[in-house]
Amino acid sequence: MKVLVAPDKFKGSLTAAEAASAVAAGLADVRPSLDVRCLPVADGGDGTVDAVLAAGFRRVPVPARGPTGAPLTASYAVRGDTAVVELAEASGLYRLPGAPEPLAATSAGTGDVMAAAVAAGCRRIVLGVGGSAGTDGGAGMLTALGARLLDGAGRELPPGGAALARIAALDLSGLDLSEVDIELASDVDNPLYGPRGAAYVYGPQKGASPGDVETLDAALRHWASIAGPEFASRPGAGAAGGVGFAAMAVLDARMRPGIELLLDLLRFDAALGGASLVVTGEGSLDAQTLSGKAPAGVARAAAARGIPCVAVSGRCLVPAPDLAAAGISAAYALTDLEPDPARCLAEAAPLLRRLAHRVAADHLSP
């Protein structure tokens, strides 16, 4: 019997690879002769680069700017001429050196990483756009790739979303990615601005006050009028503080559901061959899970092959009928073993290994 273990990360406690390893160890405790294959997954958010390393990609460290411009080392993953760039690697919230900078945080570091991948010969870039620290409409990314954002006096704008209110011209003469195919991996369908836009929906998570949100939203409206108004209302334009907009409007990027795109990169369908059971999961199984997160995508792919799928998680907030409708026949949570959330986070790996004993007992015949 073959089991494919394909979880996403358990945020705050385990990477996807660590979660997969813990589950595999627990299954082997009960069934030592079991054929277990681990294939960590991601949906385009933080952890995407780590996940694809298990599918033959190689990590490439590069210098980049963080959300406040401070230098750091980020990385992308490469296989052949395909690079996987994770926005959070350079421009994520966790990269902030101190307090949030909602008006000034930049996506320039993401552009730095993309530029390094192109310089290394990559001609396809998969850009995972989750977990950003800023709301700069992707302007920083574009400047790192050679664009110039100018005010009415011909001066280059400072970084950050608030400065976009002063843009008068976008000079793309120094930007040429015409031979590079860019795909956006995201499950966000928000437009660039407005009540469902990047500033109003995600700005507060990045430290924006109500006044900051209004400032950023107005600046994004003006930015769209310069860079491509027809793209502002497209689903996903508001992803990662508007990076989705800049990628589609200026870089001719195509957006695909993150988990769908990542499963293709991971050659997931081939990995399913011969499997009798799939185990997926993430830190919290909740309403967002069912709206396109990694476990739902894994379950959908397994169902298409007629393979049962179960999920493990830190906690489960989804009723069994809803899980079943998504293709998940059973769910197991760390809170079933340990009611204290703090201990679940601190002892996630051993608890997950114990949880896998239950999965084996319920789904793997002796």
UniProtKB/TrEMBL annotation:
Pfam families given in the database record: Gly_kinase
Highest rank taxon of the organism: Bacteria
SUPFAM superfamilies for the chain: Glycerate kinase I (SSF110738)
The protein, known as: Glycerate kinase
Keyword Kinase belongs to the record: yes
Upper classification of the organism: Bacteria, Bacillati, Actinomycetota, Actinomycetes, Pseudonocardiales
GO biological process: organic acid phosphorylation
One function term, GO molecular function aspect: glycerate kinase activity
Species this protein is from: Amycolatopsis balhimycina DSM 5908
Keywords in alphabetical order: Kinase, Transferase
Family stated for the protein in its record: Belongs to the glycerate kinase type-1 family.
